[in-house]
Design goal:
mainly alpha; 20 helices; EC 4.3.1.3; 10 strands; 3-stranded mixed beta sheet; HutH; cytoplasm; 3-stranded antiparallel beta sheet
């Protein structure tokens, strides 16, 4: 998108990951590129031609799914589209966050505006008006199997356009008709094909997966910073980060990760203090194999990024119209298998970030392994220190193991076996939020533990990067000198993780994560 006078101009099919991250992080007004007008008008005109001709065409003047053989008279086409939305709005569960709803709206606008969906300009204009006014459709997160599109959640999105059901507006849940009136937006009456075009598509599963992707990026950065800090806390070696080791293997993520670790620990006085005379030969894998594990994680994140960026720009409703030759073609772009696979690999990545971090916490609290006071407190016995904080980390790492089971290998036939294989992409994507929360807590606990550990080496300092992170933490959380109410400390550290604060001073190191 182009930034023109504080309004972003959306070029259909040309959204970037930077655009999507920006929309996820904050609300800003958008406008549609003028070049989109002609393709939109051409596909809408083709729908009108088909309706006027009267020949049956799926999604335009027929029933839906297995009811496609039912021909609908022209005077009932508006009612057909309204009925479609009302009957398909059957979602349940908690409401999707505004950040993800913005991504849903943005990607749906971009998809429809490519001019293959047969909607009138007023449909896209209304979606843009909702987006710009901050009228966020209330979309329940459950109810889609990720094939034939995200039908139920996108029906809830469309309800807001016709003035039915709840929305979130100015921080409150209210009736859509009331919010539209307050925002000066006219409800639309859906014409032939428009309801189907709005609810067919993978925009909900894609937006949820993008949320998981962006959280995974922050977790990668935070976990690499805390992992480097743990190396110093445990007086570990930086030799495993030697570039030559990783070059001879050749894995790109591993090579990039090792370079980041080298930079993070460069100049550490703690490391310098045990370069000579240290009896240990090798560190445990949770310290030594960080480039191998986190590099593989980075590769998975990069692969998911490529898939999800393509999908965010894709046309995924059905049938599709091709005005150049007047064709209307039924296919299956609504099948969200690419999104399901991307989400499943992100789940593996997020689970492994947390699993490796949990092992480093276990190492740091074990005096036999770390050489630090037991449970990172000066009077163990009287104080339990980090004992049960580690139990929380272990509980969440274990929970992530179950959540990481691939969703894409499951399928339940729906719509009287017309939709006989589905992707389960929406669940695959939505479970990433819980997994990311779990891992952010684990990494937050590691941050607290590693910061505590390096303090036992004072007056020796860690590297410049890591001392900056340490100072940021201590501005929010005091050192753990004796047992106290610990949950607020963990929450403060978790927020630093999810807000990207651990890497804020060294973003250039992680540029490889943000193509």
């Amino acid at each position: 998108m182009k930034n023109e006078s504080h309004r972003w101009t959306l070029q259909p099919g040309a959204l970037t990951l930077a655009d999507l991250r920006a929309a996820w992080a904050a609300h800003f007004p958008i406008a549609l590129s003028p070049e989109a007008a002609a393709p939109i008008a051409a596909s809408a005109a083709l729908v009108k031609t088909i309706v006027d001709k009267g020949d049956p065409a799926y999604g335009i003047n027929t029933g839906f799914g297995i009811l496609a053989k039912a021909h609908i008279p022209n005077d009932q086409l508006e009612q057909l589209q309204r009925n479609l939305i009302l009957s398909h709005a059957v979602g349940t569960g908690e409401l999707i966050s505004d950040a993800v709803v913005r991504l849903i709206l943005l990607t749906k606008i971009g998809s429809l505006a490519r001019g293959y969906s047969g909607v009138r300009p007023v449909i896209i204009d209304t979606l843009i008006a909702l987006y710009n006014a901050g009228v966020m459709p209330a979309i329940p997160v459950q109810g889609s199997v990720g094939a034939s599109g995200d039908l139920a959640p996108l029906a809830h999105m469309t309800l807001a356009m016709i003035g039915v059901g709840p929305v979130r507006y100015k921080g409150q849940v209210m009736d859509a008709a009331e919010a539209l009136a307050a925002a000066g937006i006219e409800p639309v009456t859906l014409a032939a094909k428009e309801g189907l075009a709005l609810i067919n598509g993978t925009q909900v599963s894609t937006a949820l997966a993008l949320h998981g992707l962006f959280m995974a990026e922050r977790l990668v950065e935070a976990a690499m910073v805390t992992g480097a800090l743990s190396v110093d806390a445990a007086r570990g070696s930086d030799a495993p980060f030697d570039a030559r080791i990783h070059a001879v293997r050749g894995q790109p993520g591993q090579i990039a990760a090792a370079a980041i670790y080298r930079e993070l620990v460069a100049g550490s006085a703690i490391r310098a203090s045990h370069l000579v005379g240290d009896e240990r030969v090798q560190d445990p894998y949770s310290l030594r194999c960080q480039p191998q594990v986190m590099g593989a994680v980075m590769d998975l994140v990069a692969n998911a990024s490529r898939t999800l960026l393509i999908e965010a720009n894709a046309v995924t409703d059905n049938p599709l119209l091709f005005p150049d030759d007047g064709a209307i073609v039924s296919g299956g772009n609504f099948h969200a298998e690419p999104v399901a696979f991307a989400a499943d690999t992100l789940a593996l990545a997020i689970a492994e970030i947390g699993a490796l971090s949990e092992r480093r916490i276990a190492l740091l609290i074990d005096a036999n392994l770390s050489g630090l006071p037991a449970f990172l407190v000066r009077e163990p016995g009287l104080n339990s220190g980090f004992m049960i904080a580690h139990v929380t980390a272990a509980a969440l790492a274990s929970e992530n193991k179950s959540l990481a089971h691939p969703a894409s290998v499951d399928s339940l036939p729906t719509s009287a076996n017309q939709e006989d294989h589905v992707s389960m992409a929406t669940f695959a994507a939505r479970r990433l939020d819980q997994m990311a929360h779990n891992t952010s807590v684990i990494v937050g606990i590691e941050l607290l533990a590693a910061a505590q550990g390096v303090e036992f080496h004072r007056p020796l300092a860690s590297s410049e990067h890591l001392e900056h992170v340490h100072a940021q933490l201590r501005a929010r959380v005091a050192a753990f000198d004796a047992d106290r109410f610990f949950a607020p400390d963990i929450e403060a550290a978790r927020l630093m993780v999810v807000k990207g604060e651990l890497s804020a001073s060294c973003k250039e190191l992680f540029a490889v994560l943000h193509p």
